[in-house]
Amino acid sequence: MVASAIFITDLAGKAIISRNYRGEIPLTKAIDRFAKYLAEIEDDAMKPVFHVDDNGDLMSDEDVGSTGVGGYSYVYVQHNNLYLCAVTCRNSNVALIATYLFKLASVFKDYFGTLEEESIRDNFVIIYELLDETMDHGMPQSLDSNILRTFITQRGNRMANNDKNKPPVALTNAVSWRAEGIKHKKNEIFLDVVEKLNLLVAANGTVLHSEIQGAVKMKSFLSGMPELKLGLNDKMMFEATGRANQARAGKSVELEDMKFHQCVRLARFENDRTISFIPPDGEFDLMTYRLNTHVKPLIWVEAVVEPHKGSRIEYMIKTRSQFKAKSVANNVEIIIPVPSDVDSPSFKSSVGNVTYLPDKDAVVWKIKQFHGGREYLMRAHFGLPSVSASDTGDSGDKKGKGEHSWKAPIAVKFEIPYFTVSGIQVRYLKIIEKSGYQALPWVRYITANGDYQLRMA
Amino acid sequence: MSYNNNAPPGPPQNQGAPVPDSYFTESRKGEVNELRNLLRNFSTQKDMKKKREIIKKVIAYMTLGIDVSRLFTEMMLVIETRDLVIKKMVYLFLCNYATANPELAQMCTNTLTKDCNNDDPMVRGLALRSLCSLRLPQMVEYVSEPLNRALNDSHAYVRKTAVMGILKLYHLDEEILERNGFVDTLYDMLKDPDAAVVTNCILVLNELMQKSGGMAINRAIMLHLLNRLGEFSEFGVVAVLDLVPRYIPANQEEGYQIMNLLDPVLGTTNAGAFMAVIFAFLSLAENLAGKEMKQQIVTRVKAPVITMMTGGSAELMYVMLKHVDALIELCPGVFDDEYRQFYLRHHEPTNVKYLKIQVLAKLANPTNAPDIVGELSECVSDSDATLSRLSVQALARIACRDVGGEGCAENITCRLIEMVDLDIAHISSEAATALAAILRKNPSLRELIAPPLPRALKYIHEGRGKASVIHLLGELGDIIPEAPYALEKLIDGYDHIKCSEVKSALLTSTIKLFLKRPPEVQRMLGRLLQSATEDVSCQDLHDRALLYYRLLRNAPDPSIVDQVVKTNMQIAGSANFAEENFDEDMRDELMKEFNTLSIVFGTTSDNFVSEENQIKFVKMPAEHPLDGGAGSVESAPVNPVDSLASQVQEASLLDHGPVDTTPAPATAPMAAEMDLLGFGTEPTPAPVVPPVAASTFSLIPNVALSGDEYQSKWGAVSDADAHVIIVPLTTLPPSTDAVETPLSQASIKTMASGELPTEFKFFLYAQDASSDGSIIMVQASIGKSSPCEMLLTIKISGPGGFEKADAFVNVLKNALGAYAS
């Protein structure tokens, strides 16, 4: 992979900071071209990878190369109110560049808490340092914020005139993600199993797609170089170790596609499905998994809409929780899109409170605590102007738009603690360190909404 | 660095917008001068913090794009500091403005060179990196000395920086490589204990050897790197993985071993590494078993690919979708059952949505087609016009390809007819065009398509859609009674038609109708021809109208007109529209650049990357004199192959022993002059023998050589002394025997031979009948794909130069007779 230069701009494409690693392209011109792209291309037509030919003309994918070789390719990602962008004049590994940019963003985030225009302006010296360490001559180098922290600090590093001259061993260590000699007073490790439910329901109520995306997140505060082993009720593991009956007893789950943090020994996992690793210090995602099973929608929403053109529109929303009665969903939000020109809202609901958000063209029904196996009703009533926006539009195109712009799907947000949809369980977390300390593992389970959408009729 | 050095110290870009940061808000007039004063008093300033603030201000200005190069002299005086942060900032300044002030920059190199000897490895690395990044060609000689030292530094951080430094200097002065023997050093450093250093070595070598197709790899290097795979960081691992597609495994077994070794890497969260593994797999499959294997591989990676696609951000999803699309083209059917993953989500960016629609159409099969058609129909009513057009096109594609099983095409046709009647301009028009395409493909649907056409003509206004309806009316005129009258209105209003596409369609359709129903149409045709021949807005239209007119007037027999007008538009059941057929060769070329921008742009890199930035990687074989693919050697004598197979076992990948025990006499042809990893140290025989005249050249008939002898003799001749000759063949021999038999009659013996999926391989030998009696050994391969030719690698054990090889080839050509051209 080769990136000629990296730059960060605001949403208008104005450069905030940049680094021209290879000096093979005129960067000022390249950034201006990027700003022009942002300004000229409509949101709909923007692509995160695009090519500009030698004359500075934007090439659509079909046209790339039609005006001869040369020019640059841009790869950019958005983060809050910033664009992180890489330019290259070679045929680079595009997935790698994107990954680098994301990693870079997360390094900045680790350093400054949030990554936005302000934090970059406030910390430009460190940003320069980080840009230099994470990439050399356009090739990615070290991108582990834990390690970078050991030699690039917020306070600024003083060149050693005392003998405590600490070379950044860890930068090139075999265990590249963990520095040596970490000490914590209390040896603790926190483990969160977070499952997100992705759901897509058609207007007629059939489930088009449902999927669980799970993650095991860790916060490690352990001293030294601890060896950890995580045991899950993984069906494949039971089978691999000859405990087929345990696998069959229904206490195990079949995790389809697992991805691990780089600290996990992948070859070992391949062999006997053991998850063993030396954790980085602090927060990280140990693994993610995906389950493509048919899940009953945990929170079901039905909407009946009665539009009376030119006068009013009425909504009847019914919601039902479809999980065990002893579980509780917290902070449930049901977001119902409404036409943009409604007025004088009035609501009636059996529970929770309802608000109209004119800037989002939506109604939000919030239910603080939603116990399993319950059903609630909400009615909303709006006035409509006698001449609607869509009527005034003359072209046929707009006709389509007016009709459909508010037919976005209903979205639902929720969190159910102490519960996982898949039934995944942490059976054990073994912590072994040569000093022999006792460490406390804390485990939490949580299920939340992922991309949870129900289309409206 | 980031800003054009020659830019005038002009107004900063953000003068209008105040930035609430103290460094950026103050007015800038005269500030650079003020900074200069501050810098001049720098040494008297005691407070470290204040010192930093001054420098920070300079860098802040630089970041804003203000030219602070005037401060160059002052900044250089500050370079002597013990504060690492100040040092870093000054270095940054230096690298940024050095090219504009080469003389001044040269003066401060002393400090930099001194820092290269600092006790702190951090400082050593930093100084070296800056020194190499000055981009001053006249400095190259100064730099090479500290660089050489740094390559042997005790600290890996310095070494890895030095390795990258070689590349930086190379871009300034290409000759530096030879003067310092850097290439050899880099190959040596592939054995460096630190993986980060090795990573940079690979990256740098790849670029240095750009012209010869990337870093030279052989079996020893490959095994060495693969065995250490676990040590690399998630980004470093990509460098190694990118080498694998270029490596041709010694035999099938090794290929499979490499695959097994790489398989766990599919569990990574790093998309770059992940895609690199897939590419490595696909390339290995090409060498091993071809198409079926690729199917298996795509099936294997399907689940993780989907996770990678759905789990990340929108930007990554876009990139992944492009690659998924390529994989689907490569192995149709594999992703079919995951079609629900490609359903649109409301909040996704449009670029992702468009791609998903296109992919969905490719996934349709009889099982999932009803679902997909339903989903696409929903998308048609989306508020985004482009999206609904794409959805209609996707539906048409499914119907035209007839992949949806029984009744699917009918179902789609019905839906399209409903869409035509929807009376939403872009949807109706697109649906009409889709119907025209479907009719060409599936004439049995004509009864279904006919009824709505006359009314559709009234409300479709978009040119292309209207032209499609007119076309359909012409085609289906025999079953639509009112067809001529629908057109008549248009003909009467001819002058109001603006779109030439509509006019053309009108002309053709009216002629077609005339041939079907002459009495009704004759008069309106006359009017139309008159209008069209007088129309000067479109040359094509005018000429065609004239042509039809003359034809009708002069043709002795109306059937001739019939033949001219009624060209068969139908597409045979199994064929696709020409524009939908992806060129196989082009796809193969494109797949060679998997995991790059090429896939995203859909065109190979030589179309958009200029030549000097182009790296066309070449595959490099592991040189095995006797191994023709362990599994597929047919007529080989038992001994040599067996003994070799066992050697391969010893060097097996999963055996984590030190690589240096690998017995393979491996030297890659690309880098024959270098001693890669310390193998192939056999002294090369000096080629000082007088040339042998071709006329006197003959071979000893009964030469015999054992497998071991052959192998040792082969290994004893360096690759640099091998002769590579291509003999074009007229036809592909049916079997290995067809080659061996004539050769053996010409005293060229076969040690082993075999048939691989893509080629025949032979290991041949012969002995020169002249006094020196040298043994001639040949590795030959005949590729099964065109052009048909025989690739010979000839090594001569004993004296003899190019002439001898040439003479030998002549003998071989004669022996092959019928095949050789």
CATH topology of the domain at 627-663 and 682-821 in chain B: TATA-Binding Protein
Whole-number mean pLDDT of chain B: 79
The CATH class name of the largest domain in chain A reads: Alpha Beta
Instruction: Identify the overall geometry of chain B.
Output: globular
Number of domains of chain A: 3
Going by CATH, the homologous superfamily of the domain at 627-663 and 682-821 in chain B would be: TATA-Binding Protein
Mean pLDDT of chain A comes to 84
N- to C-terminal distance of chain A: 47 Å
Assembly category: heterodimer
- In this structure, how is the largest beta sheet of chain B organized? 5 strands, antiparallel
Low-confidence stretches of chain B: 1-22, 624-694
Structural class of chain B: mainly alpha
Distance between the termini of chain B: 59 Å
Region (Disordered) (chain B): 1-24
Protein name (chain B): Beta subunit of clathrin adaptor complex AP2
InterPro entries (chain B): AP_beta, ARM-like, ARM-type_fold, B-adaptin_app_sub_C, Clathrin/coatomer_adapt-like_N, TBP_dom_sf
Subcellular location (chain B): Endomembrane system
